[in-house]
């Protein structure tokens, strides 16, 4: 029997997409921008080799020996608008490798909404 990894992600994201993972990193699309961020648990090989070259920014971890922090192309703005199910918010790179929100939490937001009593 093969081990199965299950990732819970909201199917309603239009502005976020996890594109690939591997070799200690994850490749993600946030709106129109694609970024690479550290993901130490991803010990397997990357799948989409060519897509990793088409990025607007990368967060370098101090563990990789580079100067830690974001390295961005000039095409990326300091802030840009994103949307999830009609809720608009700003995404922005932080010094801690985040972009101001946690897209993997959207499935939790959906669950809470379904379980909440609407007044």
Automatic annotation (TrEMBL):
Q: Which SUPFAM superfamilies match?
A: S-adenosyl-L-methionine-dependent methyltransferases
Q: What protein am I looking at? A: SAM-dependent methyltransferase
GO molecular function (one): methyltransferase activity
What keywords is this UniProt entry annotated with? Methyltransferase, Transferase
What species is given as this protein's source? Candidatus Nomurabacteria bacterium GW2011_GWD2_39_12
Report the record's Gene Ontology biological process terms: methylation
Signal peptide (from-to): none
